[in-house]
Every structure is written in C-alpha cells, then in structure tokens.
Amino acid sequence: MKRLRRLATTVAASLTASSLAASAASAADYAVIHAGRLLAEPGRAVMENKTVIIKDGVIERIADGFVGAEDASPDDAVTVHDLKDMFVMPGLIDGHVHLLSENNPKGRLQRVEMSEGDLAIAGARHARRTLMAGFTTVRDVGAGSSDAIFALRDGVARGDVPGPRIFASGSTISVTGGHGDGTQGYRDDVAELLHQSGVCDGVGDCRRAVREQVRRGADHIKLTATAGVLSNTAAGLEQQFFEDEMKAIMDAAHAMGRKATAHAHGVNGINAALRAGVDSIEHGTYLDNESIRLFKRNGAYLVPTLLAGATVVEWAQDPETFLLPPQRAKALQVGPLMHEMAKRAHEGGVKIAFGTDSGVSKHGENAREFALLVEAGMTPMEAIRSATVMGAANLGQSDVLGAIAPGKFGDLIAVSGDPLADITELENVDFVMKAGRAYKTW
Q1: Cα Rg, the chain, nearest whole Å
Q2: Cβ neighbours of residue 124 under 8 Å, at least 6 residues apart?
Q3: How crowded is residue 31: how many other Cβ atoms within 10 Å of its Cβ?
C-alpha cells in the first residue's frame, strides 16, 4: 500500500487527497468495496448495492451494483472487500482526544516518571485502539510540552505505526495556575520541570504562547477559557483568561492560519471566548441563551464531550475514588449538567461536532458518546453526522474528510447491524479502512 508522505511540517498543511495520490508511483493500488448498504454522506439516504472504488488511498468513484476496478492495469494491485451484508459509512472523527494519556490512579505520579519516549509508546497504543474502534481521524487537544504527540502524528502519517489521522495542538494555552497549567500540588522544583510552553499571562505573552505552539508544529490552538474539573485546584469553573488575553490568542492563532478551540465550562468564559472569535467550544456546560446566539452568529461549533461527564461522575461516586477532593467536588457538580447542556444546544440550532475527551475515558471506547448524544435528543443520523460531516467541517477538512465521495480520503467503516435503528451498533465496528488500507476486517 502506498503511504501518505509528509509534504510540510504539519498535518494541516500536508493532508490533501491530491498530495496522497501524487505520491504514488506508476503502479496503482485499488481497494474495491462491495457495500450492501452505503451511507455515503450522513444526512442523506442510505443506498443499496454499491461499489466504492479507491485508488491510491483516494476515493475515485461510487458505482451501481458490484463491479471491479475496470480502469486498473495488469501492474496495479487490486483488493476486493466483500461487505455485501454490511452497513458501510465514512470513517468516524473524534474532535477531542488526549492520545498520550489515560486517567488512572497513578496518573499524577506518571507525570514525573514517564519520559517522552514512554509517552509516545503509550500514545501509539491508544492510537491503535482508537483506529480499531472506527475512528480514522482525531483532533488531539492538549498533550503538554512533550514532542511525543507530534512524533506520533508524523509516525502515523508515514505509516510507521497504525492510528487515526491526527491533528495536534501541542501544549494547551493556559493562565499560570489555571486549568491547563497542570503543576498544581507539586513541589516548586517539580512544578518547574513540568512547566508547559502554553502557560502565559498578559496580551503579549499570550501571543507568544500561541506562536510557540505553531513553531513546534501545532495544527490548531487549544486554550482553557475557564477552570476545569480535573485540575487540582478549588478555583470554581468560571473564566480564567481576561477578555483582552482571549482576543490576543484568537487573533494570533488566526493570523498564523490556525483554528482555535476553547475548553469552557462557565457561561462567562464560554461567551467571552465566543465574543473573542473562537472557532469551537469544548464542553460548554453552563451555556445560556446568549451563548446560543453567539454560537449561531459566529458559526462556531460545540463539542459536548458527554462521555467525559459520565466518566467523571462514575469516578466521583466511587467511595474509593482516586480523584482529589477539588476534582471530586467539581465532577459531581459538572457531570450531571452536561446532558441538559447538549439538549439545549441541539434544540437551539447550535452546530455540534463529535468529541469524547478520551484520555479521561478509555481510548477505544469513543463510540459510547453516540448513545449519550441520542439520549440528549439527537437522532441517530444527527449523531453520526456530528462525527463525519460536521466533524470534518469543525477541523476545516471538509474537502477530504467526512463523507464517501470522489476526491476524499478512502476512510470508511462497516458494521453488521443498522446504526440508524440502534446507534450502539457503532460500539462494535467490524471493518475499518483508512486511506484505502484495511486495518480491521471481519
């Protein structure tokens, strides 16, 4: 299988379907998928008895009936995948993951024990689990100052390790001592070792922190507009950056050609980030009518991360929880509210993109988010659309991701049941293909 080659320093610059096709030699690789049921573009009707033809990792065409690769030459490699009894749809997109970590009772100690190499190896394990769960693209929204996330992103792009296509932010932009700083509770000398390049204070320093992430190779910018649940500080859940600092972050990100997304729970922080021009909000727990108006005015996306809310509540209710007291109190406060938040946003017409905060929850269980979205009022089709069409738009990658169509990457999955009738079918994906290569077969 011909592999995608990096053509620039970031995935955002290098991932175009045309560049992948251009990297192929004269002999082509064809993947031919015979799909009994095909949801080519979520939101549109399911088609029956179709053939998807993928050439050198890019979808060439969709044909009626079950046909072969008529254009292939004798030197070309042609692989036929019989999915006549399956439901075929685009590869899934998770817009909020943390691939290098997975919360556990030893997490705080691991932060000072694990090297960058250790983090990269753990990230490779998590990336493989994510891919095998049907998620062919992810957005990693915060991996500290380690270069491991960029090494993992580039290694996946080269084909060195199996994993989803990764869009990485690098270090989270955070105020000193805020959610995203991550040094709370450590000795000062240890905290100095854990200092992250995204920590900043004041307008000028915030611009510097954004530019530093771009220098390091960030595909997008992540900031913590408010306090958070899992930071070890009793700082509430409200706004932490001042509005002029937020505006500086957004302006610097956009000037460098990057989208910006904001972790935000409290309503003042949500609305301040939206007024400052943020492209998406992660969590959005306390959004109000003004938030909904600003979302719609700006065309911003909400990434609800309901699975994270459900997960922290489970931890907090465990009498032997590993959560520290400030974390437990905030988990019990925030978790139960997130379902109603998603319902309110959906009813208000806010654009919703799928995201799980995996790394809080276990990697590979990302599809549990679908049932939670349906419980919050979305139809199964809307929930699937959030992880495909809307997920691609949230990343600014609609030209190559989010649907099965000519010119897009050959990313698709298949399940034996009908996820439009039972959304939990997506929790057991039987077939996974990314860029024309089958990573999981049934």
Answers
A1: 21
A2: 152, 155, 161, 163
A3: 26
> Is 212 part of any domain?
yes
CATH number at residue 56: 2.30.40.10
Residue type, position 188, single letter:
D
Q: Are residues 16 and 58 in the same domain?
A: yes
Q: Are residues 150 and 294 in the same domain?
A: yes
Rounded CA separation 204/37 (Å): 54
If asked whether residues 229 and 356 sit together in one domain, one would say yes
Domain residue limits at 198: 92-395
CB neighbours of 165 closer than 8 A, spacing ≥ 6? 11, 15, 136, 137, 138, 156, 157, 401, 409, 411, 434
Cα first-last separation, the chain:
20
Rounded Cα gap, residues 357 and 24, in angstroms: 35
CA pair distance 225, 271, nearest whole angstrom = 10
* Total domains present in the chain: 2
pLDDT, tens digit only, all 442 positions of the chain: 333 323 333 444 345 555 555 544 579 999 999 999 999 999 999 999 999 999 999 999 999 999 998 888 999 999 999 999 999 999 999 999 999 988 777 776 777 777 889 999 999 999 999 999 999 999 999 887 789 999 999 999 999 999 999 999 999 999 988 777 666 676 777 767 666 789 999 999 999 999 999 999 999 999 999 986 766 676 668 899 999 999 999 999 999 999 999 999 999 999 999 999 999 999 999 999 999 999 999 999 999 999 998 888 887 888 888 777 888 887 887 778 888 999 999 999 999 999 999 999 999 999 999 999 999 999 999 999 999 999 999 999 999 999 999 999 999 999 999 999 999 999 999 999 999 999 999 7
CATH of the domain at 259: 3.20.20.140
